[in-house]
């Protein structure tokens, strides 16, 4: 079994956070004597800093216990640091990417890794990606946009050009939605997280970016959000409106098959539907481990999508 959606915080990154607590407003809060600290950055998105986030031995042991033989590890979205000055973001990017590359290179038959990039400075983000892949990373995990701009915005062109040239994996991972209507009952996570992926992916699809940069392997978290389950609406819009079809060479449902999707859906019927729509070869097993809402897929996938995404058979 494989796992393409996991998160890890190497010791060097944790040390950097402790040393730079003031500049990034990092708070380690002991809420419960029986639990680990909760970590928040800049007053946002606090989460329990479980030992499995920071202990490589425990992380690998728990993955092995779950039957996972190969894992793709990624930075956590709370540490993207896009809202800070790019110098701060770049400093943590360098620490994070070097640490993950070292961990993955030490266990090449067991681990692969994605890095993070300075999405708040796209030219630097392109350099971050290239440097990280030179270290052995497979690509990068990024948020669904920055500063109100979606990923198809021309400002992000340097990153997409580099990703296309490098044939990088770009894992689009949502951040918590800040819509004031859904700020209770955990809805920023339950509804906002898949919604952010939906908006980002629909924008990329409808913009024509998938034709412009065909070599980029775009992975969508949480089964692609809500997009795959409303693709018929996009197809209907393609038939009806020039504003939808003008940038595309085929129906949206055909472009949907160019993305990769993880299996983090918590519903066997939803996963079966996704397999029918995009094909099992573009779905990768994922768990979102070790966050609270994590699960291994209830359906055993062949692993073809995972191996293809990471080119493990080459």
Automatic annotation (TrEMBL):
<dbReference type="InterPro" id="IPR032466">
    <property type="entry name" value="Metal_Hydrolase"/>
</dbReference>
<dbReference type="InterPro" id="IPR006680">
    <property type="entry name" value="Amidohydro-rel"/>
</dbReference>
<dbReference type="GO" id="GO:0005829">
    <property type="term" value="C:cytosol"/>
</dbReference>
<protein>
    <submittedName>
        <fullName>Amidohydrolase</fullName>
    </submittedName>
</protein>
<dbReference type="Pfam" id="PF04909">
    <property type="entry name" value="Amidohydro_2"/>
</dbReference>
<dbReference type="GO" id="GO:0016787">
    <property type="term" value="F:hydrolase activity"/>
</dbReference>
<dbReference type="GO" id="GO:0019748">
    <property type="term" value="P:secondary metabolic process"/>
</dbReference>
<keyword id="KW-0456">Lyase</keyword>
<dbReference type="InterPro" id="IPR032465">
    <property type="entry name" value="ACMSD"/>
</dbReference>
<dbReference type="GO" id="GO:0016831">
    <property type="term" value="F:carboxy-lyase activity"/>
</dbReference>
<feature type="domain" description="Amidohydrolase-related">
    <location>
        <begin position="3"/>
        <end position="295"/>
    </location>
</feature>
